[in-house]
Design a protein that fits this description.
- Strand 3, helix 6 and strand 4 form a beta-alpha-beta unit.
- The chain has 45 helices and eight strands.
- Helices cover 67% and strands 5% of the residues.
- Strands 2-3-4-1-5 form a five-stranded parallel β-sheet, with helices on both faces.
- The two termini are 43 Å apart.
- By secondary structure, it is mainly alpha-helical.
- Among the domains are: 167 residues, 3-Layer(aba) Sandwich (Rossmann fold); 42 residues; 63 residues, no CATH class; 56 residues, Winged helix-like DNA-binding domain superfamily/Winged helix DNA-binding domain (Arc Repressor Mutant, subunit A), CATH 1.10.10.
- GO terms for molecular function: DNA binding.
């Protein structure tokens, strides 16, 4: 079919390729609804590649459990030996290194990955790796996806949020009535009726035209596809149905097993426009066509056809993930129990944790087919993968069953190791008492097993729990013992783990020896491929620096820490790092950015979710949003359930601040004082200083720690020095808060200027009231509310950004238009999406007419 009304998109593809050849790579996001013509656009690029370029195309398949690195493995015949070998082996780090080398050595490469909404986690990880480096590669990375497949929690939505450099959007629109008329001009169907039925969706238009005759236009696309299939002879129909249960390209060798006569037997189906035959294999012209055929098949026929595909894959040596997928569809238990564990472990090696979970689940659906020891190992591997994905409650349930089986099997070392994992799972799920019980038993069992390495990790786990409870002496004692044992046993994993806890304990004492210890812990973990522990060391380092309000240093370590967690797909720690980003924005009074970053955590991870709620609540109360206090109350309830000072103390500080902002000094004191007493007992100097500062503002003077920590200085009444320290640390809200304690009108006016600039309305109102009480003249009125009348609460700048997004402009184009940096525009776009409650620009564009006021 003729490619109509795509001239602009084809031109932009061509421009991007020429720019890449000249040294400026980019990411092109081609998106729209199903059937909108994404594959047709890619086909035009493949058939007519721009001069000087090569085009590599891989596709994601609509498998229930996606192939690990599937679209990249499609490229194996067309790339160099090193990348081909890496893709076949599936080792994540080698794939990343080899792919970077391949693209660097071949400028002008166009790498297309179709239907990324069906991608596996390992592929998304590779795409994230390339996207972050696209400015240094002379490559165009083209990703196609369906807008309607995405929501906020979709893994692709997270990837799209992380692609920030040289990114262009190519949203595809439906055809106009004129284009539909041109397409039907050679047929006997009525153009207006076709347009009314299809609303200009190119695929729907093509199916209706191809299936209709002069007498009747099919009412649905399924009717149209079915009608075309039934016009074929019975043998060809059977071949097409066989191919339809394979949601990927059917290669030449596979085709020979599935269709007697190979591609030659499919001429009629090709002429009917159902399939496309190429030298590399056969596939359906559109996924919707394949899906319509499969959905029309009786269940018994689908099972029979999947069984034949399974037989073929076993004969040709197919990918384990594909084998499992078809074995599940065929109900072949023997194949499932044989291949699912292997597919799960392959997925784990490649970093495709979601796929690993699904393969383990498929295997464990048949527990009677495994011996006790193998079943226990499979279930524990399953629990660990759930934990890595941040599904803490599910991990606990699975690991409790592991512990039951370990006790029956009577192997102390294995039981001790499993108890250590259970302790970690319990803590992340928010059950500290259960975590401590499992940790204590793990150490007891490990000591009895006479395994120094196991005892080292068990003691380090207890040290970690002590550190999280701010029991610093116990942490240092246990961690030091664990380090000695780990060194004696030559156990780098345990050594890294223990150094991590020791370094964090030192940071909690404001001892910078902890920085070197945490970096050493990360280096040891990386060298021994304990990537979770490496990521945790970076989390603890950044978190500690944020506690000290050393924002620039925290930001320096945060970005590489995020990249490490993303590459290792440790979702639980990635969630912590998103919260760290949110805390960084909050400290800098970047309210929208803080809320947007905090919005990425969910209730399945109660620890980071608690902090995220505090960030969102504080950002709201400081701007005068009445919803802020309810959010802080929710955070406080969750903190009490988690039962650790690191959560209860900050929650109390946040609620006391809210009481101060509404002028309720008594409430502020009643909230802050019990938390202050607990902080003094546990000797958390920084949190003691913050609570002391709040209590001073509420009219109660308490003991303040020594030192130059800004809260401590402010709590001692030295507002001027505190303001200087806050300014040096880049914390404008806190600077203004300190200046607001000054007796001098000039300082109050300086505080007011800051508060107006950052839109901190409640504190600005209180400063204005103080100035009026003191008889000040010429008090600035302050800015009018930028969000008044806007149903989504967008600021004026965000309204401008949304209007340009709705016009289809890229972030770079918006930056040029508004004279901003691309990074600033990235942040504004993220904040707009968060306020609108959507995951994609396309969804924001659809909501824009209801949000935007008419342009003046």
């Amino acid at each position: 079919m003729t490619l109509l009304e795509r001239e602009r998109e084809l031109a932009e593809l061509g421009d991007a390729v020429h720019a890449a050849i000249e040294g400026s790579g980019c990411v092109l996001l081609v998106h729209g609804e199903a059937g909108i013509g994404k594959s047709s656009l890619v086909g035009a690029l493949r058939d007519r590649p721009p001069s000087g370029s090569r085009v590599l195309i891989g596709a994601c398949d609509a498998l229930s459990t996606p192939r690990t690195l599937g679209p990249l493995r499609d490229l194996t015949p067309y790339v160099g030996a090193r990348l081909g070998d890496a893709l076949r082996a599936g080792d994540r780090e080698e794939v990343l290194t080899a792919l970077h080398e391949e693209l660097t050595s071949t400028p002008g490469t166009v790498l297309v990955v179709e239907d990324v909404h069906w991608s596996d986690e390992a592929t998304l990880d590779v795409l994230r790796f390339l996207g972050r480096r696209i400015d240094e590669l002379r490559t165009v990375l083209v990703l196609t996806y369906r807008d309607d497949e995405l929501d906020r929690d979709h893994p692709l939505a997270r990837l799209l949020g992380d692609l920030r450099v040289n990114v262009r959007h190519l949203p595809l629109r439906r055809l106009s009535a004129a284009a539909v008329s041109e397409l039907v001009s050679d047929s006997s169907v009525d153009a207006e009726r076709v347009y009314a039925l299809t609303d200009g969706n190119p695929y729907f238009v093509s199916e209706i035209i191809a299936s209709a005759d002069a007498a009747q236009v099919p009412r649905t696309v399924v009717d149209a596809v079915t009608a075309r299939l039934r016009r074929l002879d019975h043998t060809t129909q059977a071949h097409v149905e066989q191919l339809a249960v394979v949601p990927s390209v059917v290669g030449v060798s596979e085709l020979a097993h599935l269709v007697p006569g190979g591609s030659g037997a499919l001429a009629a189906a090709e002429e009917a426009g159902l399939i496309t035959v190429r030298p590399e294999g056969v596939q359906f012209r559109h996924e919707l066509t394949r899906r319509a055929i499969v959905d029309a098949l009786p269940a018994s026929r689908r099972i029979e056809l999947n069984a034949q595909v399974l037989t073929m894959l076993l004969e040709v040596g197919g990918d384990p993930g594909r084998i499992v997928s078809h074995a599940v569809e065929a109900g072949d238990v023997d194949a499932i129990v044989h291949w699912a564990p292997r597919a799960a472990r392959d997925a784990t090696v490649s970093g495709a944790r979601r796929q690993a979970v699904e393969h383990y689940r498929a295997a464990l659906a048949h527990p009677e087919r495994f011996g006790a020891a193998e079943r226990t190992e499979l279930l524990e591997d399953f629990a660990i993968e759930l934990h890595m994905l941040g599904r803490g409650f599910d991990a606990v349930d699975a690991q409790m069953e592991v512990i039951r089986m370990r006790r029956e099997q009577g192997e102390p070392a294995a039981l001790g190791a499993s108890l250590r994992w259970l302790s970690r799972f319990h803590w992340l799920a928010g059950d500290r008492s259960a975590a401590e019980a499992a940790a204590g038993e793990a150490s007891t069992v490990a000591a009895g097993a006479d395994d120094r390495g196991l005892l080292a990790i068990a003691l380090s786990n207890e040290a970690q729990l002590a550190m999280l409870a701010h029991d610093i002496p116990r942490t240092i004692d246990l961690a030091t013992r664990a380090i000695s044992l780990a060194q004696d046993a030559d156990e780098p994993g345990a050594l890294s783990h223990a150094l991590n806890n020791l370094g964090t304990a030192h940071m909690l004492q404001n001892n910078d020896d902890g920085i070197d210890e945490l970096l050493e812990a990360a280096d040891i973990a990386i060298a021994s491929n304990h990537m979770y522990d490496a990521a945790r060391a970076h989390v603890n380092l950044v978190w500690s620096l944020l506690e000290q309000y050393r924002l620039d240093l925290a930001e320096r370590y945060l970005q590489p820490a995020l990249e490490l967690s993303e590459r290792t797909e440790v979702v639980a720690l990635w969630a912590y790092q998103r919260v760290e980003q949110a805390r960084l924005h909050l400290a800098r009074a970047q309210w929208d950015e803080a809320v947007a970053a905090a919005g990425h955590t969910g209730e399945s991870l109660p620890q980071p979710h608690c902090v995220a709620l505090m960030v969102i609540g504080l950002a709201r109360i400081r701007r005068g949003d009445p919803a802020g206090e309810a959010t802080l109350e929710e955070a406080s309830r969750l903190a009490e359930r988690l039962g650790e000072l690191q959560r209860t103390g900050p929650a109390a500080a946040a609620r006391a601040e809210a009481a101060l902002l509404r002028g309720d000094l008594r409430a502020a004191r009643s909230i802050a004082r019990p938390a202050y007493d607990e902080v003094v007992r546990l000797q958390n100097g920084n949190l003691q200083a913050e609570l002391a500062s709040l209590l001073r503002r509420a009219g109660e003077v308490v003991e303040v720690p020594e030192g130059d920590f800004p809260f401590a200085v402010q709590a001692r009444g030295d507002w001027k020095r505190a303001a200087e320290l806050w300014r040096a640390n880049g914390c404008p809200y806190h600077e203004a808060s300190a200046l607001a304690e000054s007796p001098h009108e000039s300082d109050l006016l300086a505080a007011l200027a800051i508060l107006d600039r950052i839109e901190a309305l409640p504190l600005a109102r209180r400063v204005r009231a103080i100035l009026r009480e003191r008889g000040a003249r010429s008090i600035p009125r302050g800015p009018s509310s930028l969000t008044r009348g806007n149903p989504a609460g967008l600021t004026a700048r965000q309204v401008e950004v949304l209007r340009l997004v709705a016009e289809g402009r890229t972030n770079a184009e918006i930056a040029d238009r508004l004279v901003l940096s691309v990074r600033t525009v990235d942040t504004h776009v993220a904040a707009v999406l968060a306020k609108l409650g959507v995951a994609t620009r396309a969804e924001a564009t659809r909501l824009a007419p209801d949000v935007l006021e008419p342009a003046g």
